[in-house]
Amino acid sequence: MDSLHIELSQNLKQKPEPSALGFGQYFSDHMFMMEYSLEKGWHDPKIMPYGPIALDPSAMVFHYGQEVFEGMKAYRTAIGELVLFRPDMNLKRLNESCERLSIPQVEPSTLLQGITELIKIDASWIPSGEENALYIRPFIIATEPCLGVRASHTYKLMVILSPVGSYYPEGIHPVSIYVEQRYVRAFRGGTGAAKTASNYAASIKAQEDAKQSGYSQVLWLDGVESKYVEEVGSMNVFFKVNGEVITPALSGSILAGVTRDSVIALLKSWGIPVSERKVAMEELVEAHKQGLLEEAFGTGTAAVISPIGSMKWGELELSIGGGKTGKLSKKLYDTITGIQRGQLDDSLGWRYRIE
Ligand SMILES: *Cc1c(COP(=O)(O)O)cnc(C)c1O
C-alpha cells in the first residue's frame, strides 16, 4: 500500500455552535479518500480538503446502487483523550457489507490509519458539550463509467466527519412507533444484513408515511410472513418481557449492530437473562395484555438507546412503560455513553485511544 498523502486545507471553515448541531448537517475541513482499480487494488490513500468530487454521470453507483457505508463516533474524554468505540467491529462489518455487494474488501489497518489521521487533523471539530460527538461516515461507491449490470471495476472509498449533537436535546425520552405491515425493509436472501444505501432507499416511503401519521419510527417485520419483529428505523430492537431481555436473532435480514452487541454483552455481565431469537408481534401483544411487556428500546450509534413508549400495530396501540424511560434502558444508556466518554471503567476493552 502507498503511504498516506496529506494535503491540508488553506481555507478553514467557521465551526457551528455546539448547541445547535443537529445530526449530519455540518462537515469538517478534511476528508479521506482512496481509490480501487483492478490493476492496482486499493491505492493512493490521501487526506485532502473536504469538498465536491467529480464523477462521470455513467458511474455505476448512480444507476445500480453498488455502495456500502459505516457509521461510528469519535469522542473527547474528560481527561482530553481522543477515543473511538469498538472500531474493529465497524471495519469488520464494512468488509462483510463489501462481500455482499461484490465490492473489493479493504485492509482494516489501512482504513483505521486513514480514519485516525483524519480525526487527528480535524480534532478541533470534536464539539464540546457532554452529549456531542464527531460522527464518522466511511463509504465506498462504484465509480466505473458503464451502464452494464455487473460489479464495477473501480471504486472510491471516502471518509467524512460531521460534528453532531445529542440525539435528545431535552434528554432521553420514549418515542412512538408504527409497526409496518405493508412495506418490508429486507427479506430472506436480500441485503438486510449489509449496511448499504438501497436498504434505506426502500425504507424512506414507509418512514415518511409513519411521520405523517405522527409516529417517529417504523418497526419492521420480517419479509416472509410479516409476523416477526426485525428492526426499528435504522436501529436494532430489544424488548424486556417479565425480566428477560429478548432481541431478534441475526437471521441474515437484520443488521449486526455494534450497539446491539454491546447491549447484549453488558446484560450478560450484569446477570440479566438475554436471548436472541425470533420475536413474534403476537407474543408481544400477549405479554402486553398480561402486563409483562416492561420495556422496549432501539439501539444504534446515533441515539445509543432509544426507548419505545408505544407501538401501533393495525388497530392495536400498545403503550409501554407509561410514557417513561425504563430503568434498564436508562442504565444501558448511561453505561454505554459513560464508557464512550471515559467516565466509566472500560473493563470490556471497548475504548480505542487515538491520542
Ligand atoms: C447502522 C444500523 C444499525 C445500528 O448499528 P450500530 O452499529 O449499533 O450503529 C441498525 N440497523 C441498521 C439497518 C443500520 O443501518
What key phrases describe this protein's structure?
D-amino Acid Aminotransferase, Chain A, domain 1, D-amino Acid Aminotransferase, Chain A, domain 2, 2 domains, nine-stranded mixed β-sheet, 355 residues, binds pyridoxal-5'-phosphate, six-stranded mixed beta barrel, alpha+beta, L-leucine-2-oxoglutarate transaminase activity
Evaluate the radius of gyration: 21 Å
Multimeric status of the protein: single chain
The count of domains is: 2
Low-pLDDT runs: none
Helix content: 10-25%
Mean pLDDT: 95
Q: Biggest β-sheet, characterized? A: 9 strands, mixed
In this entry the ligands are: pyridoxal-5'-phosphate
Amino-to-carboxy terminus distance? 24 Å
Question: In sequence order, what are the helices and strands, one letter per element?
Answer: EEEHEEEHHEEEHHEEEEHEHEEEHE
**Overall CATH class of the largest domain:** Alpha Beta
Principal-axis shape? globular
Enzyme class: transferase
Family: Belongs to the class-IV pyridoxal-phosphate-dependent aminotransferase family.
Cofactor: pyridoxal 5'-phosphate
InterPro entries: Aminotrans_IV, Aminotrans_IV_CS, Aminotransferase-like, B_amino_transII, BCAT-like_C, BCAT-like_N, BCAT_family
Could you give the topology of this structure?
Layout: E1 5-6, E2 30-37, E3 41-49, H1 60-64, E4 67-69, E5 72-76, E6 82-85, H2 87-100, H3 108-121, E7 133-142, E8 154-164, E9 175-179, H4 197-201, H5 204-212, E10 217-221, E11 229-232, E12 235-241, E13 244-248, H6 258-269, E14 274-277, H7 281-289, E15 293-300, E16 304-313, E17 316-319, H8 327-340, E18 351-353
Parallel strand pairs: 1-3, 9-10, 9-16, 13-14
Antiparallel strand pairs: 2-3, 2-8, 4-7, 5-6, 5-7, 6-18, 7-8, 10-11, 11-12, 12-13, 12-15, 15-16, 16-17
Bound molecules: pyridoxal-5'-phosphate.
